[in-house]
Backbone:
C-alpha cells in the first residue's frame, strides 16, 4: 500500500511538504485546496513536476471543503463546478490519481422540533444539479486515470446516500473512508461505505479519542490493524491525516513498530 501525508499548515511551501514526505519514506502528498498555495492557478505544473521527480513522490488533491456544486444560486454552483474542472485538468497534467471531496449537506432550517435540510426538502432539484456536476466531471476526466473519491465526514444522511449512489453510477467516482471521523460519530458511516466496498479505493487514517480527531496512530481508541487490513484488501492508498509534523512522525513511527511486531514481517 502507498502511504501519504496531507499538506500541513506548519509547512508553508510545497517543497517543504515534499521534503518531509521523502524523509519519512512516504509515497505521496495530498495537497489541500483550502490552502492559498494549493489553488490550481498557483500550482505551476512545471514546478510540481520538478518536485515530484526530485523527491521521488507523487500527489493527490483534496478539493475545497466548501465545494457545493448544488448551491441553489446557479452562479455559485457554476463557480464550484469550474473549480472542480480546473482541479481535474491539473490532476491530468500531473498524473494525480485521486481527487478527494466531501459531499455537502448544504443549509438547514432549524424548527422547534427538528432540522430540515434544504437539499432534502428540494431533493429532486438537488439530485438534478448533482447529476450535472457528475456529468461535467466525467467529461472533464475523459479517458484519464483519475478518480474523484467522496469522503465520509459527520454521518451520511438519506439524501446524501442517494446522491452518493448517483455519483457512483459514473466510473469516474469512487469512495474515501475516513476511519477517524467514522469512529468519532459512533461508526455509523462504516456500513454504507462497506456496502459500496467495490468502489472503496482511498483512506484517511488518524486516531480518535471520543470526539477528538486527528490524533497520531496508536494514541486513541481505533483498531488500526483491522483498518489496515481493510485498506490492503481494497488495494487502497492511505493518507496519514494527522495535522502536525510531530503527529505525522508519531504515526509513521507507530506503523513501523507495528510492522516490526507482526509475525513474519
Residues:
Amino acid at each position: 500500500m502507498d502511504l501519504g501525508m496531507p499538506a500541513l499548515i506548519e509547512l508553508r511551501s510545497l517543497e517543504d511538504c515534499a521534503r518531509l514526505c521523502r524523509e519519512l519514506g512516504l509515497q505521496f502528498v495530498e495537497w489541500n485546496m483550502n490552502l492559498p498555495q494549493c489553488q490550481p492557478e498557483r500550482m505551476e505544473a512545471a514546478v510540481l513536476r520538478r518536485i515530484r521527480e526530485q523527491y521521488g513522490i507523487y500527489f493527490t488533491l483534496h478539493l475545497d471543503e466548501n465545494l457545493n456544486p448544488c448551491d441553489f444560486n446557479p452562479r455559485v454552483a457554476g463557480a464550484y463546478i469550474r473549480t472542480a474542472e480546473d482541479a481535474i485538468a491539473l490532476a491530468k497534467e500531473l498524473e494525480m490519481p485521486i481527487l478527494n471531496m466531501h459531499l455537502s449537506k448544504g443549509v438547514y432550517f432549524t424548527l422547534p422540533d427538528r432540522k430540515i435540510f434544504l437539499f432534502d426538502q428540494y431533493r429532486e432539484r438537488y439530485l438534478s444539479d448533482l447529476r450535472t456536476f457528475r456529468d461535467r466531471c466525467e467529461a472533464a476526466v475523459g479517458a484519464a486515470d483519475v478518480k474523484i473519491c467522496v469522503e465520509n465526514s459527520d454521518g451520511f444522511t438519506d439524501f446524501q446516500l442517494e446522491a452518493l449512489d448517483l455519483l457512483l453510477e459514473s466510473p469516474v467516482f469512487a469512495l474515501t473512508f475516513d476511519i477517524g471521523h467514522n469512529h468519532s460519530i459512533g461508526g455509523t458511516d462504516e456500513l454504507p461505505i462497506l456496502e459500496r466496498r467495490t468502489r472503496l479505493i482511498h483512506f484517511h487514517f488518524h486516531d480518535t479519542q471520543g470526539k477528538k480527531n486527528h490524533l497520531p496512530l496508536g494514541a486513541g481508541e481505533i483498531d488500526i490493524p483491522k483498518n489496515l487490513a481493510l485498506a490492503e484488501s481494497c488495494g487502497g492508498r492511505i493518507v496519514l491525516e494527522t495535522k502536525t509534523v510531530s503527529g505525522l512522525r508519531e504515526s509513521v513511527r507507530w506503523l513501523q513498530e507495528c510492522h516490526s511486531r507482526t509475525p513474519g514481517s
About this structure: The longest strand covers residues 173-178. The CA atoms of residues 45 and 147 lie 19 Å apart. The mean pLDDT is 95. The longest helix spans residues 74-94.
